[in-house]
Specification:
- Two copies of one chain form a homodimer.
- Chain A is mainly alpha-helical.
- Chain A has seven helices and three strands, in the order H-H-H-E-H-H-E-E-H-H.
- Chain A has a domain at about 45-155: Winged helix-like DNA-binding domain superfamily/Winged helix DNA-binding domain (Arc Repressor Mutant, subunit A).
- Chain A has a three-stranded antiparallel sheet.
- In chain A, a hairpin with a 7-residue loop joins strand 2 (about 95-100) and strand 3.
- Chain A binds a DNA duplex through helix 5.
- Chains A, B: GO terms for molecular function: DNA-binding transcription factor activity.
Chain lengths: ~160, ~160
Amino acid sequence: MRVNDETESAVAQRLDQGILHGLLGRQLRVTYLAVFRTIEEQLTGLGITPQQFGLLVIVDRNPGARQTLIAKARGLDKSTLVPMIDRLERDNLLERRPLATDRRIRAIWITERGREVLRKAVPIVQKGDDLLRAHLSEGELAELIRLMEKVREGLGVTD
Amino acid sequence: MRVNDETESAVAQRLDQGILHGLLGRQLRVTYLAVFRTIEEQLTGLGITPQQFGLLVIVDRNPGARQTLIAKARGLDKSTLVPMIDRLERDNLLERRPLATDRRIRAIWITERGREVLRKAVPIVQKGDDLLRAHLSEGELAELIRLMEKVREGLGVTD
DNA sequence: TATTGTTATACTCTATAACTATA
DNA sequence: TATAGTTATAGAGTATAACAATA
């Protein structure tokens, strides 16, 4: 993918992309990545990654949820979540708390510091996402969202 | 992300996704990933990954291109390409050929076997991508593509 | 000096399988 | 037996920095 990089590699960009060019999935990916990387860069200043941001949001909105549930909500294996939470706990953004009623469970809570970081991160992410909408009219935006929803429904994507 | 999985984790899906839910970038990602993973699974049967597929397409369409150029076309660092080509060369799908005119360059060519694999892979990828379009009318599809292009233009994404 | 490709290294993201402690 | 979380391990994908050969 190339972003604002006409400068140096004019030749390289002209390599024939064959079938790749026409794939709708690829257009979605390229568009998404362009914004994702901007956001990623800016979140680095807060010391978190986009993945960690997503996790913080979920935990913030679902206080005390257990790991398995969070993993499912994020579409991840439970084992994948362990090191993610480890790091956020080490950085004091999240904490694990044992549950008296079921001692297998370790409920996840956001910390005061986590809330602070989140408060700063949300506008960064929102502003990044707004870039996607910036060049569309009100009507076009609504139509794009409608069509995207229709595509996802057709795929059976619940998310 | 959840795909066709209402069965088991109804509760998990209902976790509050907060700001995440409304992000257009996230909708792009989720939609793209749903199709990507289907394609990925099917390509596994041919012994290649989606990334390798992309590389094969580029090499097939640009015979004898040198690595640096291909790396740029794929948006990758040149060092990233080395192990990718290593593997495809080991599997006899690509080959490096020295260039008489500039002995620093190793031009990349697709092999007969690579062409064969590609011939089988293209319909898999195309069929996967068609899923995205399946539930849109002719007019809706055109409009979606137009709007996506507009979004990308607004971002300065050349690709 | 600059470029091509390589190596060494490291980090993220992700999964599977086997384990433990509890239920 | 089944579930929650953990560990051990592995593999893709990616990058940066330093390097040798060549231009």
